[in-house]
Every structure is written in C-alpha cells, then in structure tokens.
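S., here's the first fold you wanted:
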Amino acid sequence: MNIALDCDGVITEVPEFWAVVSKALIDAGHKVYVITDITPYFATQRLQELQEYGIHYTHLICTKNKRQACEELQISYAIDDMGRKYYPAIKEWCPCEIIKIPSP
C-alpha cells in the first residue's frame, strides 16, 4: 500500500508518533511518501527535519500539487491537515482515502 504523510501540521505536530507509525508501515512492507507543499529548493532542509524527527519514509516528494502527486503515485491513503485545500472534490476524483488531521 502507498501511504502519504504531510509534514507541516501532521508530522510536525507529533513527530514521535509518526516516527513509530512510519517505521511500522515500512516494516510491514508499505511505501511511505512524505508529500510536502514546498519547492524542491527547500528539500535539503526538509530532509534534515525528517531525520531529526526520526521519520521513516521511502520517498520525499516536494510539490505544489499534492493531488497530482497522489494520483501519479497511486496513493491509497493521504494523511493531511489541509484536506479540502488540496483535495477539494474528494468524492468526485480522489484516487485515495483522505484522512484529515485537524490543525491545532
């Protein structure tokens, strides 16, 4: 299964939790994509943050179009704090289940 995690507002809120979950998912044979709404210019900084948080992932995707990334990567579940912003018409087109994490 392909699972997408958002960084800001999801991983950053409880990184200890997501470190355990992301490792368990990968250990179970799933792919974990961190799909983040930043330009590739900031990828090095994001990689450092993920390492500091202890997040396990198979791919880091830096894009301004999360919807397209989820379609292309055949994401089964996307966990994001901005669900309706990035996935406005979920039932009409979405190739995956969106799990919206409330922003604090």
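And the second, which I think is the more interesting of the pair:
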Amino acid sequence: MPGGAARVNTKRGNGSAEGGGGVNMPAYIEGYEWHTRCTMAALADDPEVLCARTKDALHHMLCRTRRLADGPLTVPTGFESSANLRWVGVKLRWVGVKNGTHLLVFVSVGNKSTVDMVSAFLQTPEAASVTTCIIVYEIKITPRGSADLLALGVEMDRSIEIFSMAEMVDDPLQSGMTPSYRELSAPEVAALVAHYGALDRFPQLRTDDPVCRRFAARAGTVFEIIRSLGIEDVHYRVVCDV
C-alpha cells in the first residue's frame, strides 16, 4: 500500500484513457486515433495476420487484465474447422473457450445470426461453466445486433462484452501514452479509505472508458494509476456507471 506521500487528485475524469493530469486531451486523442489508423492500415492487406494479431491481443488482454491462466484456447465441439467457417450465416474467423469460463468469438460482421450462434452454444452442456462472452467484430456490428447480444446476456445471466477488431489490435494500455493501471483488491481499497476518506472524494472513471472495458471494471472498482514523469506519481480513480 503506497504511503501518505501519494496524493489524491480530486479532479473528475473526462472519460479518456488518460483522464487528465495536465495532458492536452485534444492532442492526446488525435495522436491515439492516428496511431490506430496506422496500425489498421498496416495490417489490412493481410487478413490472416490481422486475424492472428486480434486473437493474440484478446488472449493477452484476458491473461493480463482478467488474471486468467496463460493456457490455450480450446475449440468448442462443432466448431473445428478453418478460420473462415460459415455457421448459420455467420462468417467466423475463430471461436474458442478460455479457462472454461470465457467464450471468445471473432466474427466478420456482428448481426442477428451472431446472436443465434452464441445463444445456441450457451445452451449446450459444454457451456455450463461459461460466465463471460467476448464478441469481437471485424467490419461492423449493427445496432440491432449489439442490442440483442446485450439482451441475450441479461436473459441467460452471462456477461457479454462487445469489441471492434481495432479495439483489440490497438491496446490503449500499450500505446505508450497511457500510465500504468492496477485494479486494487478489497483489502487495499479498505486501507485506502482508512487513509484518505470515503471513495466519493476520489476522481472517477466511467465504465465505458477504454481501460475500464479492458479490465471489465464495474462501478466501485478502484484503480491505482502510476505516471512516471521523472518521479513516481500515484493517483487513484473510482469506476462509476455511465
């Protein structure tokens, strides 16, 4: 637990991955978007490389921010085929299960057929232990498809998260412009409150912040943020609902 020298910045976050701290936000956002476009352009001519890069990025995210074991992705029964398998109108790049608890689906287009595919799998005995479904779409996801996927999660009591391929390939935590984030444990949060006071005094991050989405952080989660600017500068932020 950091000592009393660490200060609490009481300015409210603005929803970006950096969230203030003296950074010129328009320049930061412009630089990040430019980096994303360059990354996507460099990979666009090689779909196989792009697919592999997306898979590796998602695997890395799960191991690093969700603290899942660094084991292989297993292919569910009935999905053993090439990367371009077509199943009920869905062009699948790949599908896999991580640690038995996370269903990962990478599709060309997120639409109603994607919802049907995920729903069908979640009803199989093989998916009994799956608690989280992460859907990554390559080209686009329709508003209806997105709404239906989220509604499916509520109906089947599963957490469903939706990402674009660009969000997977270009990790905001690895951009070089984002400080180090670490989710605090319950005892660490209790010690923080005892030292600084109630959490409502702390600046906030919204649940739709790119970093919060990486961690699947819910309201009430507390992050320790370390900015290295010649000296170690420690801040804390509390996640709040949108």
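Why I say that: The first strand starts at residue 73 and ends at 74. The chain has a mean pLDDT of 77.

Talk tomorrow,
H.
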